[in-house]
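YM 10:42: Ice nucleation protein sequence, as discussed on the call
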Amino acid sequence: AITTTQIAGLTSTQVSGLTTTQVAALTTTQVEGLTSTQLRGLTTNQMASLTTTQIGALNTTQIGGLGTTQIRGMETTDLAALTTTQVGALTTTQLGALTSAQVTGLTTTSLGALATTQVVGFGTSQIRGLTTTQVTALTSTSITALTTTQMLGFTTTQLAALTTTQIAGLETTDIAALTNAQVSGFTTTQIGAMTTGQYNALFM
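YM 10:58: structure's back
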């Protein structure tokens, strides 16, 4: 087995040469000792081989230092195991690199804890990948932070799932930009919860 001392001395190139079996065998102490440079040497397959326990051992600096290659290698179970502190360390670039399938791994707690600066990192593909349960976990502040482009990524089913509290967070410019198909997704309860400004933007 590779010792902790040997792990610490590996270059990013050497790290990428480790087998998935070797990577999966790393102790949490060894994982905690990996530098951001070493972690960025991991391939998508190597990242996928990490257990949820190993992923849980990564600190915020390590999480924030992961490249898009490593992010794409994370499995939905890994993303689901992230703590809110770890999720808080993810950058907009990292969040934007997630596939629509990976996004389903984010827990409602994690989504609810996202900062507005993080939410804007989601692309339309990530938005569409969210389940209705995940959508309802977004705070009204996060809803307000979404761009018009992001709002256009919502499906009618997702829009119909928005709570009245979330509806209050919709900006009039975003509402006005919605397509007729999207507008048809709003329920009478949601429309009834809209302010005069929002209502006018919806039917302008």
